[in-house]
Design a protein that fits this description.
alpha/beta; D-Maltodextrin-Binding Protein, domain 2; eight-stranded mixed β-sheet; 22 helices; about 40% helix; binds alpha-D-glucopyranose
């Protein structure tokens, strides 16, 4: 088992997000120390069970690269007395197995139930998610909230695709509809929706102050706190440990060439043994926001940047971008199904979890569902590959919660947001759903660190932000231009020919 010291994980996680968000407003990546003592073999799926954290996992790494790296020292909270620190060797044996006490049926009770009950009888509408365990988690939280406060919450399941979701929100908000109160807010949207959302600073500023500051900053537009951070995401490579071993590989691929080679060999072998539906690599190629995320990872890891340069000029037509997109085009119908050009996260996941793919690109939530699947003991997580000599990358994602300024029950809505973003709920969501919490103290909690072994990946990648900071209210159009054209390339269009035109379109979209 390859656990990094817990303290190292915490520091690097916080550092990553400090840097990436600081950069997103004009730069966009968080560099990780190259020499991080990272687990070569990725992060084993059975890790959470391996609770017997022995002392060798707890050295305080006085001079880890993470510490040196602290270029933004003033922002590196040292958490003098976080639970992680206190935990020490003494409680080690007592630490329950990850997720041990947490269950989907028993979410935490509402910490300020008495106070919140002054809004008993109020009714709010919450736009929640349906990806992975999201719907079950929401159901449990809403039931508990209503039981403890008497506030009714109607859950509307937003579309899985953020692209469809933002269209729905914008329509409702344009009509000043009172039919949505609390909304899930993608990390790319604060600039887009700021004018229509309440300033949560006065009521929930204290809650926000416990979260990773850079993520709070990302939710603050012209001094207005438009969302409370909830969980954070980045793209990772899920892989089958048993199959790599069966075919004689030592570990996951470091380069895209290796991924292709392994995919071909294992696909051929598994098909030869009778599984005609087996593929090497599944990912998200559908023409929506998730394709922008995938494409950014391919491009960045080929040395092509992040579609935009520091001066705000688009770079879709640079050579590395075109090479990366042409490579991905070559996967369709070979190591990936033809249908991958219509896959979102939830189409890729069952292929992998049903045992029909060697590799999958996905977000942290898929760790929890993987643990409930037939391949629970046979998968692990690693960084997405790069080409030789370039940085491995994971696109920064994540969600917060915002409140419509047309809400007729803003106080009740605030109490709901206060509850679901509370440290208690964030910890519970991490344990039952492997969501990476944005609250710093929760991130330092030993049980949470044990439950999220995939955090190790962060030490080996750059977390890369989409150009939403630079393009603000125009981001949706910019991203639509990216994913529609990338989808066309995946379907056979020539990237070399298309790229200059796309670049012009991007420039126009950003200037509107
Ligand atoms: C995940 C990310 C989000 C991203 C989306 C794309 O939900 O958290 O930021 O936009 O995937 O599908």
């Amino acid at each position: 088992m390859n656990f990094l010291p817990k303290r190292f994980l915490l520091l690097s996680l916080v550092a990553v997000f400090m840097l990436v968000f600081a950069a997103a407003c004009g730069g966009g990546t968080a560099e990780q120390p190259e020499e991080a003592p990272a687990a070569e073999e990725g992060t084993e799926a059975e890790a959470p069970a391996e609770e017997g954290t022995t002392d060798e996992e707890m050295p305080m790494e006085e001079e880890t690269p993470a510490e040196e790296e602290g270029t933004t020292d003033e922002e590196m909270p040292m958490e003098e007395e976080t639970p992680a620190e206190e935990e020490g060797a003494t409680d080690e044996e007592e630490a329950p197995a990850a997720a041990g006490d947490a269950s989907l049926d028993s979410p935490p009770s509402v910490p300020n139930a008495e106070e919140a009950s002054q809004y008993t009888g109020a009714s709010i509408v919450y736009y929640g998610g349906t990806t992975g365990l999201e719907a079950e988690i929401d159901d449990a939280l809403v039931a508990q909230f209503t039981e403890d406060t008497g506030i009714e919450v109607e859950i509307v399941r937003r579309p899985q695709s953020p692209t469809d979701t933002i269209n729905q929100y914008q329509q409702l908000l344009a009509n000043q509809s009172p039919d949505l109160d609390v909304i899930m807010l993608d990390v790319i949207w604060p600039g887009l929706l700021a004018d229509n959302l309440l300033d949560l600073g006065p009521a929930l500023g204290d809650v926000a102050s416990e979260h990773i500051p850079s993520i709070v900053e990302n939710s603050t537009i012209d001094g207005k706190l438009v969302g409370i951070p909830w969980f954070t995401d980045w793209g990772m490579l899920y892989y089958r440990t048993d199959l790599l071993e069966k075919y004689g590989y030592d570990g996951p691929p470091a380069t895209w060439d290796e991924l292709e080679e392994m995919s071909q060999a294992v696909q051929e072998g598994e098909r030869g043994e009778g599984n005609d539906n087996f593929y090497g690599f599944v990912w998200q190629g559908n023409a929506n926001e998730s394709l922008t995320c995938n494409a950014l990872e391919w491009v960045y890891s080929h040395g092509g940047g992040r579609f935009i340069d520091d001066g705000g000029a688009f770079t879709f037509d640079n050579e590395a971008t075109v090479t990366a997109l042409t490579r991905a085009q070559g996967w369709v119908g070979t190591i990936s199904p033809d249908g991958v050009t219509t896959y979102g996260e939830e189409e890729a996941r069952p292929v992998f979890e049903d045992g029909n793919a060697l590799f999958m690109r996905n977000w942290p939530y898929a760790y929890a569902t993987g643990l409930q699947s037939g391949i629970a003991d046979d998968f692990a997580v690693a960084p997405l590959p790069s080409v030789d000599g370039e940085q491995k990358a994971g696109t920064l994602g994540g969600w917060g919660l915002g409140i419509s300024q047309y809400s007729e029950n803003p106080e009740a809505a605030i109490e709901f947001v206060r509850y679901v973003t509370s440290p208690e709920v964030l910890k519970w969501r991490a344990l039952v759903g492997t969501y990476a919490p944005t609250n710093e103290a929760v991130l330092a909690d030993p049980e949470v660190l044990e439950a999220l072994p995939y955090l190790e990946v962060l030490d080996q990648i750059e977390v890369v932000a989409r150009p939403s900071g630079e393009t603000g209210a125009n981001y949706n159009e910019v991203s639509t231009t990216i994913f529609q054209n990338v989808n066309q390339i995946l379907r056979g269009q020539d990237a070399v020919q298309l790229a200059p035109r796309v670049n012009e379109q991007l420039q126009q979209a950003a200037e509107r």
